[in-house]
Every structure is written in C-alpha cells, then in structure tokens.
Design goal:
Rossmann fold, single chain, eleven-stranded mixed sheet, six-stranded antiparallel sheet, 487 residues, Tumour Suppressor Smad4, globular, alpha+beta
Length: 487
Amino acid sequence: MAGKGDDVAAQGEGRPTRGRRWLARLAFAAAAAAVVVLLLFGGLKSIAALLLGFAGLAVGRAAAWFFLAYRGVVRWLALVVLVAAPVFVIVVYIVNRLLWEVALSVVLAAAAAAAGRAALSGGAPAGPPEYAAARQRQPFIIMNPRSGGGKVGKFGLKDKAAALGAEVSLLEGPETVDVAALARHAADRGADLLGVAGGDGTQALVAGVAAGRDIPMLVISAGTRNHFALDLGLDRDDPARCLDALTDGVELRIDLGLIGDRAFVNNASFGVYAEVVENPAYRDDKAGTVLQMLPDMLSGHQGAHLIVRADGRVILEGPQAVLVSNNPYEAGDIAGLDRRARLDQGVLGVIGVKVDNAAQAAGLLNRAARSRELTALTAHEVVIDSSEPQIPVGIDGESVLMPTPVRCTIRPLALRVQVPRSRPGVPVPRPQLDWARLRRLAFTSGPAAGGPPPHDQSRQNRDNLMRRPPGGSSVARAAGCHARTSG
C-alpha cells in the first residue's frame, strides 16, 4: 500500500534538463530576494508585519472553520472575523508604510513557488496506450436531455449522432428509467458500442454494463461537471466533438471502480458529503442544506461512525469524510474536484478527513496534502464499516443507501473507452513544492539530481495482466476482480 504523495512525487520526476536546473536556481534566488527585500527596506518592522500577515491568515482559516461548524451567533461572529482579519492586516501595513515592501516580498515568494513547481514538473506522465478502434456497425447511445442544463439539445447531439449511424435513446418523461437495464437490452440486441451523454452517475451505470459485456464505451461530455470526461482528455466545452470517436477514434483501456457490485468511474464518498447529498433539500438549495447540516456532522453529533480499512488494515476510525476514487487524485484533493493524471494504475485512491477542533481544521486548510488530519494513500481494496446497518454513499454524485460493511475494489483495465483521436488531452499535473528535491535539482550535478526515475505502475499492471489488443478475451474476466458486498 503506497502513500499517494510518493506516487505524485514520482510522476513529476525525470532526468533533469538544463532548463529545469535553472528554474530551480531561479526559485531559490526569488525566495532569497523576498527575504532581502524585507530585511533591507523594512528591517525588523517588515518581518513583524509579515508575521502579522501569517497570523491573520491563520485567524481567517480558524474563523472559516467556526463558520462551518457552528450555528447562530457564533457562525455570524466567525463571518465577521473572516472578513475583518485581512482588512486589519492591510490597514496595519498602510499605517506603518510597509505595504509595498510586503507586497513585493509576497510577489517574489509567489514567483519562487511558480519557478519551483515548473522545475519539478517532468512533463505529463504517459497516458494509457491507444489502440486502433474498429468502426462500429451498431452503436447505441443513451442521452439525458436534462443533463448539464440541456446540452443535448443545445449542441444538437441527437441528430448528429443519428447522422453518424448511431441509435439514440432519449431519457424523456417524468418516469425513472433503469439506464443499466436499457444498456443491457441494447447489448442483447447486438449493440457493439454503448455511449452515454449525461452526468457522471449515468456514465458509471453504462460503464458497468460495457465492462461486463467487454464492448467499448463512448463518453459524451454533456453533464454539468464532466469529471470523467476531463480525466479522459475529452472536450468539455463542445460535447459534439466527442462524437468524432465514431469516425476517427482510438480505444483506451482504463480501470473501473466497484462498490459492491455497482461500478463507479470517479469516486464513492462517505460521511459528510454523502449525508448532505442524501438530504432531499439538497437538490433545491445546495448551499443552505450544507450550512444547515455541517455543524452537527463536524462536531460528531450526527452521521454514522465510520471505520475504514485499506487492504485489510484499519487506517481511520471516526472520520468526518472519506473519498474512495478510481485511481488517486492529484495532491491530496479532499473534495474529488481535482484531476487524476492516470486512470490505469490499478489502485484506488483513499482520502480521509478527521478534524476535532479549529486548530486541526486550520492545519488541514493550510497544508492539505501533508496535514495530520488528512489520510491519503492508495489501496486495492477499501472496506467502510459502521455500527449502522446502512449508510449513505455518494456514488459519482448520486446518493445511495448501502448495507454495511461497504466494500470498494478496483478492476484493472476492465473498461474499453473509445475516444476521438484528436482531443484536448489530460492537463499536466501540478507537482507539490518540495524544497529538498528542488535543492538537489539546483545544486547537484548528474542524472540523479532530479530523483529516481518515475515508477510506472500502469506498465506493471499491463505486464501482470498480459494485456491484449481490443477484441480479445476480457481483461476483467482474466483478472478475476469481480467484487461483492461483504457481510
């Protein structure tokens, strides 16, 4: 079980180039200049002012915690402090005529951080191999015209897909449609590609069927956030471009998460987030519902007591929130809003948050990726247990009640996804700022200065699974990774 920080660090490393070395040196020069500006122009007064700024930042973060964790008078007093803290610091700087010195020092520090991250960026990790995709004879696409504020109609997706030879099924009417059953029925009738234009929850239902039948899936970014499409490198601004996969596409093999026997493409969330999503008022008033429910949850008076096991070992007891993702998110993202650099590493990402007081909350907000309040790692199996017989789970944004214990697993390379040959691609991950690595890069010569060569977990997965080109036997069946709910 590897720590996520190690994975991310390894991804950003590589053989150092002359440009990266000079960027590392520039980072140290800018950091030194930031200190010199304070000492040379303001002396002890500037240093005291800078310390005051850090104190104001800490007070503001603590106030943010109190605003979220309490109701009534305490909440509104915390809001006043949250607004007043930065204003007070700026006023002190102006009165003492230190505003420009501190501002220049902050700009130099920001430049040092930017240069440092650029120096540690070894380029985007190689994505999953691309295979030539055979042209489908009978593609079937499910479209939700209500998803994403009506993107299906806005971009004319139904007519464009039909013009390319696809059969399109619209999820219309007030009745609830069993999307998975609709996809299975299409596969039974001979569909050789299953597409879906909708939110990530709908994408996940179709992905489970496509993986089970070993037929490719087409993802159309017609949802609201389209996190899955983002990590596939698809165009989220123009979902019609995703249909190019039908005429000039390539095929990728990626992992699929399972919670019990239900698939998820992004994540499964437990605790605070899942409790909020379950509330009927959440759909109509998201912000109000969150502010109403958070105090009881964060103080431990509401919500199930959770126990988290990763690969058989207890890693958390009583966390407020747990996020289990299909491959890890970048930099310890605690909300599942960031990117996943790879979708074929064969591991689950695990993020757990446990906060008991304002000081711990401030620490979490200050350095999320390395905070003691944050648990971040990777695993092949995660089991969430509770004294409650059922707990709410947010599966790709959809709330579901599941019996405990809840078992999450990963099916390596189980899903075939057909994507356009020409697409925006996955953005380069932003590395964490590690000054020890940066020092080695800047001042140590030789190929080892940038650290060890990157560890390609996905290559090991492909070797272990004896990966075959599309059309062969199912990788999912070969891996024998079908999961069932424990208990």
